[in-house]
Amino acid sequence: MTVLKCIAVDDEPLALRLVETFIEQTPFLELITTCDNAVEAMGVIRETKPDVLFLDINMPNLTGMELARLIQDQPGPLPKIVFTTAYNHYAIEGYKVNAVDYLLKPFSYEEFLRASSKVLQLHEEANNQFQTVTADDEFIFLKVEYQWVRISLKDICYIESLKDYVKVHLEDSQKALLSLISLKALEEKLPASKFMRVHRSFIVSLDKISAISKNSIFIDKIEITVGEQYKEAFKIVVDKWLK
Description:
Elements (H helix, E strand, L loop, with lengths): L3 E6 L3 H13 L3 E7 L2 H11 L3 E5 L7 H7 L9 E6 L5 H6 L4 E4 L4 H19 L11 E6 L2 E6 L3 E7 L2 E6 L6 E3 L3 H5 L7 E5 L2 E4 L5 E2 L3 E4 L2 E4 L5 H12 L1
Parallel strand pairs: 1-2, 1-3, 3-4, 4-5
Antiparallel strand pairs: 6-7, 8-9, 8-12, 9-10, 11-12, 13-14, 14-15
């Protein structure tokens, strides 16, 4: 059975204890620890890499929403976020940081279990969306609609993130393939010698790059901006090419 590692974050002791109790009652959840502030939680998340974060929003010094934004670009898999809050006007902001669900206090165990089950489903779907690629592999399987599609790595030009989906753009194909998996999850399974993350929303095939400029990559007529946090790593690759 899949077991998801969890962290609960809330500055209200009673609310934190309630979430802790709900987690303990749920067979597929395992509580790593609890935090009473988002600053402490940020360090714990980096160290323990939880699968799920039950996160209050209104907290002093650093809010839950600010923490959710900060961890979007951390290395490694991102935890799924379930917001727990007494305020209902954060739903749109929660959507922007890819929150799985939004529990409005006071919430019942039934509501908690529904949100947790949604996280479990997304986790299992992501794990089943691809076949791990090794250095010797020349293809990958992705689930596209109701079929497993075999995709040759040499045919991939670039991969684009569309929230919970990726769009795989192929050479000599007018239609991209859409699959329900995060860009980060797919990035971890692609060989680093052939593919590189150059933007929060893009992975490119290094073999398909036709030109480069100071801040952009070109794949034929498609221009992809290199994100600020990816520039240094990409510069190392370019410097090797130009030697």
